Every structure is written in structure tokens, then in C-alpha cells.
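ok so i was messing around last nite and threw this chain in just to see what happens. nothing serious, just curious
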Amino acid sequence: MRTCEQRTEDVFARRDAYRKRQQRNQSIVALATLCGALVLSVCLSSFPFTKPAPETDIQSYAELFAIVKDQEHYYTLYGGTGDFIVDGDVAVQNSATGNSAVRNEVATEVVDDSVEYSDTNLQVVGVDEADIVKTDGKYLYVLSGTRVVIVDPHNGTPQKLAEFSIPLPDGEVNDVAGMYLYENRLVLTQYRYTADRQSVSTIARIYDVSRPTKPMFVTLFEQDGGLLSSRMVGDMLYTVSHHVLEQTPVEDDPATYVPKTGCDGEAAVLPAEDIYICTESRSYIVVTATRVSGKGERVSQKAVMVSGDTVYANTKNLYVAGDTYLSQETPIVRFALNNGQIEKAAETTVSGDLLNQFSMDEHNGYLRVVLTARSETGKLTNSLLVLDSDLKTVGSLTDLAKDERVYSVRFAGDVGYFVTFRQVDPLFTVDLSDPRNPVIQSELKIPGFSQYLHPYGDGQLLGIGMQADENGRTTFMKLSMFNVSDPTAVTESHVYLLDQRYSDVLSNHKAALIDVEKNLIGFATVDSTYHVYGYDPVNGFTRKARVAALSGDGVRGVYIGDYLYVISRNGILSYRLDTFESVGALSLVDAK
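result:
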């Protein structure tokens, strides 16, 4: 199969030939029309007119149309319009004064910067991820349904400063996925669709929160496709959407088979030079870079004809992995970020499926990937691949833990850890210091499995997962601390069994509060309680507190100064960090 570069060169060649034909035709009629044009210009000069949009070069999209038309029989077709929304001036209600805020008003407020506070639990340092709670140590920003509530933590007695609702046009649904906070900008990422899902797009809304009592809408960016994931590096937001074509493609209307992006309701299809063909399908991965500081600016955008499922990013590269839905093959595309100037850099296809974003990690220019493949007879096998910057495989470990599947993965520099499970929990430790020759250093087998792994200081690896009996049946949650100081002889130093069977932390790393220096391990369980643990190498795990959490979708623990705030969409409960004594409470339930 031709590479993306070869396909793109073909598209450009056809486009250039088309333009040359057009130029020849135009030169023939130019002289004949010149006099008429002059006369018309004199006549029309007295009438106002709107400058027409530049004509779309249909020929440059010829190969795209041929592919999506050929793939049309795989999909159920709908007749959605896919129109982007126009937000207009958004009024934001001040809960204290009742005043409305207007777009782009500037204000400042000075607050103490010396307070220690926790941040979202991230996979990569310096690469922020959207979440339902954000803080800068001065204020708490809480996503409560389709509302954002801004709270002053006020030394353990939280007070609501302001709130605003996300605009919801008639007949549409907005799922707000999460928020980012960068200096005085609050960014909301949304999955927007009509009630019948005939039109799907991803939105990034930017708000000025330099005065938390008076948040102000700045601007809105939109792109076709449902939100797959996003990341923020500095003030640059990278948004990834998966756009599945659900209309009958019309050859002379690229909007029916080419993704659109836009700002504040104005949209246009991506130029052909920003689109790459990596698989022949009816879906695209759309990646955009948006500067959120100032007035907001769309810096660059790219689309790849391929399906997408999993996103990993560091400060230099963003990787999107997907599947073809028809085989065990997983395409992987690398985008070079270049401080917002996105470029498609490499592509490959590997055998097997990824568990989640932690199944990918880049170190010293090499991408490490853990995969699980299923044979035609249903047998499972696992592998670890090392890929260079061109995504060519340079090292591998295959046929690992047959008939087991991967439950968790974590990379830490030159070492990789991953857990598989069937009846017992093998924790594999892999030496990756030589990318071309990865070596398994140890394989620890214990009952149960870890679903989340987190480095916990020198020579220690925290596991949060489930205990299991000798038959492989899961029982209750457990905490494990692995001694990995000697990678050739990894041991499970301590185990703590909980009387709980589920927590969001098992499937969402952002639900965990983990601070090694403060010796804090916190997460909520389904019984509306928040658990806080500590660990020391001699005594093992210690339960520091088990406190109440208000029910609601998703619970986060955040510390600011000397206080722990347990936050859900319904409210905030606060506790002293030293004694975990209850201090304050704030309801976030919408009174409407």
C-alpha cells in the first residue's frame, strides 16, 4: 500500500495539473472579457457587495472522494447538516451580584502564590489533561453537569464566587468532557451533537477568569468529529477528534466528505494539503493546535484518513492509535507538535490492541508499545514493541503471557512494567535501556492484579487493583507496593485489602490523588466515601482517613494548603490534612 506521502504527492500532482488547465482556459477568455469587466465594475461601484468565498479546488480532493465513495457500503448513512454553531455574546451570571459578564472584558486580581496544592494526576509531566476539577491553588473550578462553578477554598470553608452554564441550543446535546486552566484562561472541551446524532463535533470554549467573580467568554473553536482526547502544553491546546462520515458523499461538495474546522460559527473544510491518507476508510482523525492565551488563535490543523481510539502525548509528539474494525491490526500515527505547528511525521501498523494511553510511551526518541492480540482460535498473546522515530520496529518481545490479557502498563525511563492476568498476576519488568534489545528482568506472580501502576519514590511502584482467589475470581480492591529497586528480583513488599469492590481509580488515573512527598494516596469508592492512605517501607500501608464524599458523577480529592477538598458535581466537603477533621461544606446542586 502506498504511504501517506506518496498519496499526498499524487493529490498535489492532480491539483497542479487541474490548475494549469484552468489557467489556460482563463487566458483565452481574458481579453474578451476585459472590456465587459471594466464596464461592469463602473456600474457596480455604486452598489455595496460581499466578497465571495474563494472557490474550492474540487480536483485536489479527488482521491478522498473516490475512497469514501468506495467505502460507503460499510456505513449507515444519515442526512445531517453538520452546521457549526454560532455562540454570540455569552452572558455569564455572577452568583453574588447578579450582573452579567460580556465578552473580552479585562480584569485582574492579586492572590497569594505561596500555597502548596495538588494538581491533576498526569501521565507525562508538563502535559496537562482535561479533568472535571482544576485549581491554581487560589480557586477551585468545578464542572457540575453543564455548569462551571468557581469556588474560593477560603481556608477550608469553601464559598461559591460565580457560576455559568454552557450554552445549549435547541435540539442539541453537549457533553462537557473536562477543563484546562492556564494562567487566566479556563478552557472547556465538549462533545457536541444533535439529539439524533446526525451532526457531531468537538468544541473548545475559552473563558477569561482573571476575575473569578466575573468570568467572561472569550471565543470558541470547533472541529468535526467526536472528541477523542486532548492535551495542553503551556498555552497550546491540542484537540483530537474522530470524524466518521455519515452523509452520502457528493463529488462537487467537499463538505460532505472532508472534515471542517472553524471559530465562532465560521467553518471551512481543511485544505487538501492538510489531509493525509493512511487507510482507505470513511473516518478521519482531526488534530488541531489552538493557542488559548490572549484572544485565542487556531495555529494549525491536520487530518488523517484513519480510525482513532487511543491518544498519548509528550511535549514534542502526539500519537494516535486506532483499529480498522476489520482485523487485529492497529494503525499508529505520530504527529510532531513543533510548538503548535503540527506535522504528520510517521505512520505504521502493528498487530494487537492497546489497553489505554499508558500502553504507549516515548523515551529518548523511541516509542514503546504494549499490545494484546487474539488469534483466529481466540487465544491471547502479548507483546512489547520498540519503534524508532519513523515508527519502524527496532526491538520486540513477543508471545508473552499466553492466554492472559494486559491489565495495566507503566513506563519509567529505561524500565517498563506491565501486568497481565488470568488466575495470578504476573508483573513483568523490562529493561529498555537498549531499545534494540529489550530484556525481561523479572516476572512476579501473585494473586489478583493491578489496574493502575504509579511510581512511588525511589525503588517503589504502587499498584491499585483487585485481589483474586486461586481460581481467578476477583474479590475486593487491594493496594500493592512493589519493591523494584532490584529489577531482576521484584517483590511485593506490602498488600492492603479494602472492603470495597470498585473505584473510578481502577479505570481513570485522574481520579487518584497521589503525592509521594506528602505521602498521600487518595481516591473515592462507590459507597460515597473518600479513602486516604499513607505508606512507609517498614509498616506498609496505613489508612489515614475514610471520610464522606457527596454523591455525584466522579469524585476528586484536591489539597490546597492545610486542607483536603473532596469534590463531586453535587458539592464540596473539606477536611484538615493533619487530623482529617471535618471543616466545611458547600452544595453545588443547581437550585433551578
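not much to say yet. The two ends are 57 Å apart (CA to CA).
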